[in-house]
Amino acid sequence: MANYFSEEAIVLEAHPKFKGVQIAKFVGKEQGSPIGSSILKIDPGVEIPIHTHDESIDSIYCIKGVGQVFRDGSWQPFSEGDYCFIPAAQEHGVRNTSDKPLRLFVVHCPPLF
């Protein structure tokens, strides 16, 4: 079955781990999907700390805003239209370095949720 989410139907809720981050979950384990997809909204000045996913890749597309992504051992600029692929077990993180929200589209494979 196809899933469709209109912009008006996308509901952001508090992220279960990171203060200052909101998440809208689309598909994942609950739907029996082999991937998990979501939108993250990161408030100004907020950082998702450096971490790894032992089994999941992270695929991150910046929809809107300006920040940095930690990849290959250092923080790198990340802004609207940029894309970053993080292989499983590699350190990564994201932080909002601006005074406006940072909005990301994220895909995990296999899904985290």
Give a concise summary:
The protein is mainly β and 113 residues long. Helices cover 0% and strands 51% of the residues.
Jot down its keywords.
single chain, 113 residues, mainly beta, Jelly Rolls, 4-stranded antiparallel beta sheet, 0% helix, 51% strand
Structural description of this entry:
The chain is mostly beta strands and 113 residues long. The chain has one domain (18-109): Jelly Rolls (Sandwich), CATH 2.60.120. It has no helices and 10 strands. It has strands spanning 13-14, 21-27, 36-42, 47-51, 57-64, 66-71, 74-79, 83-86, 92-96, 102-109. The strands form 2 sheets. A 6-stranded antiparallel β-sheet has the order 1-2-3-10-5-8, with no helix packed on it. Strands 4-9-6-7 form a 4-stranded antiparallel β-sheet, with no helix packed on it. 20% of the residues are buried. The mean pLDDT is 96.
